[in-house]
Amino acid sequence: MGDLPGIVVTGASGRMGQMLIETVRQSDRARLAGAVERQGHDWIGQDLGTCLGTGELGVTVTDDPARAFDGAQAVLDFTAPAATVAFARTAARAGAAHVIGTTGFGDEDLVAIADAAKETAIVRAGNMSLGVNLLTMLVRKVAAALDEDYDIEVVEAHHNRKVDAPSGTALMLGEAAAGGRGVDLSEVSDRGRDGITGARRKGDIGFAVIRGGGIVGEHEVIFAGPGERITLRHVADDRALFARGALRAALWAQGREPGEYSMLDVLGL
Q: Could you tell me the Gene Ontology terms of the biological process aspect for this record (predicted)?
């Protein structure tokens, strides 16, 4: 086990953090090397297994990421933008690959992550699933094949605890559609419709957001043209698929040159 890549999970107590932990534990290609939580959390200083109710694992939950990352080969991080930016700097100093599933970044956050990627491999994706990344490729191809007579709408649905909107995956799909048309998403994105908005502007890419219950993740891209509609859709039934994708990315990143990578790179697409 000591020869396997050591993986640290941040945000260990969260739903995604726990799923990442379980995925690493079940893998025969990696070992769980650390677990990080925010300062003041009840889990700090306790054995992770005790916190999870699975029996002792020999991994103590810490609020010191530098200590947790030291000697680790990769960090799996599905937390929040500010935390992820700090983790990126710490992972870079430790020489650990950083797999980022966090979404909702601002421009300054992305600049900071790009700076950290000068020192280590960073895999960042709005979605870690194979299906969504295949969907992204299809969206780009369809958008490139159709002209502006086909309106593009991205519709996404998630659970009621998700804090950012549109989702990182929706924005990734929007970027793919814009890329297929050779335009900048920021110039054609339409994210808010309320009241008397006027007619839809030709060439815009619209976004609609649904939040409710325990929806894991649903994404749909609609190309609505004269007399026909083309719909591309992905439904996630189990967030374990994101954890499996993240672990795959962490293993793929071993030995890679510093830089920013996507799941398309990991999947060879």
A: diaminopimelate biosynthetic process; lysine biosynthetic process via diaminopimelate
